Amino acid sequence: MNIQVKDLYKNFGDFQAIKGVDFSIEEGKLVGLLGPSGGGKTSILRMLAGLEEPSSGQVILNGKVANGLTVQEREIGFVFQNYALFKHMTVFENVAYGLKVKKVDKARIKQRVEELLELMGLAQTINKYPHQLSGGQKQRVAFARALAPKPKLLLLDEPFAAIDAKVRKDLRLWLRNVISEFGITTIFVTHDQDEAIEVADELLIINSGKVEQQGTPWDIYHRPASRFVAEFLGNSNQLISPVTLKGFEILQKYQDGQEWKENSSVFIRPEWIEIRPLDVSYQKNAGETAEVTHVHFRGDAWYIELQLADLKLFTSLSINAPRYQVGDQVNLLIHKLSIFSDVGNEIAGNSLLNVSLSYHI
User: Could you list the residue range(s) of the whole structural domain that residue 201 is in?
Assistant: First the structure.
């Protein structure tokens, strides 16, 4: 199913929850709605489903305006974060429910339910009741029930929120594989960045009722369209006061004495910072002398905090990289940084490196 949303607004009394949202989604895409709590993600999802009517604007499904159509008329499957399984029904009866409502032939219902439960790895639970299942099993039953009537669009509202971290991580890969198997357009709401980046083909970053940016996880992470996106998605070093950095003379045009010019922000991703021995010879003059102030073990990486003049920075190193100790003097090489201001956004590369980088975002 192709989706278009045009100039969508939603008011709850005097509160404007959604403010002129526009986006489109191609058929078969798995798209994550990502943003802070209260930003409007679930309101958008509910309007797509037909559970809420827009105050104004259009929801267009496969080229047809869907405003006023019911959930059934939109051919949508919905999975809630609390499973919403019928406690008095077996797994078979839960998955079969939507098909029975559509008055599908009993033999076909049996075949469809058994196919889905086999695909979900739940064949052995067919006669069990919800209270006899684990959290992960309950969520997979909820997916099977939503998929049973062969919807054209699947909507997931924080589907793994009620599941413990280990099971949630396993279910991400499972969800990716299931959606690929069915080729169904899917939109899921989440506030978990790792979940969104790992699972989604595209992300819609939602903030204060507006779409901040739409794109692949890679594009959004590497080319954030606003300071909000740069700060929200992933980790960054944010420079809170003007600084002088080797190779970044460009910063001067965003500085006014000891203050940033109005609405200017600078971010440095931790992977844009390279730590080298103090006596390094390769492009040594492009780096700065800094001191290691903290070293934290993160299982698969070392998290390193550094002091560069008055600037506190952090980065990470592979667990197999040379070990640095607190107090070590190092050559700290910043490869690039992001700048956001009223006059535009850009990513600037270190001009002292052999290959410099600077482009607008």
Answer: 3-229
Please say whether the beta carbons of 47 and 53 come within 8 A.
yes
For residue 203, what are the β-bridge partners?
A: 32, 215
Tokens, residue 145: 């029930």
Q: Which two tokens stand for residue 3?
A: 């989706």
Which of 210, 288, 178, 179 is CA-nearest to residue 43?
Answer: 210
For residue 101, what are the CA distances in angstroms to 72, 124, 331? Answer: 10, 25, 68
3-state helix, strand, coil in the chain (%, to 5): 30, 35, 35
3-state secondary structure 258-306: CEECCCCEEEECHHHEEEEECCCCCCHHHCEEEEEEEEEECCCEEEEEE
Helix (H) or strand (E) holding 308: strand 301-308
- Dihedral, 231, 232, 233, 235 alpha carbons, nearest 10: 50
pTM over 0.70: yes
* 345 touches 351 (CB < 8 A): no
3-class DSSP assignment, residue 49: helix
Tell me, yes or no, whether 195 and 320 share the same domain: no
Together in a domain, 331 and 188: no
Query: Which two structure tokens, joined as six digits, stand for 184?
Result: 């169904």
**280-298 pLDDT per residue, tens:** 998 999 999 999 999 999 8
Give the CATH number, domain containing residue 269.
2.40.50.100
Kindly compute the dihedral angle of the four CA atoms of residues 246, 249, 255, 257, in this order, to the nearest 10 degrees. 70
Q: If we measure between CA atoms, which residue out of 242, 250, 238, 251 comes closest to residue 314?
A: 238
The pLDDT tens digits for 264-283 are: 999 999 999 999 999 999 89
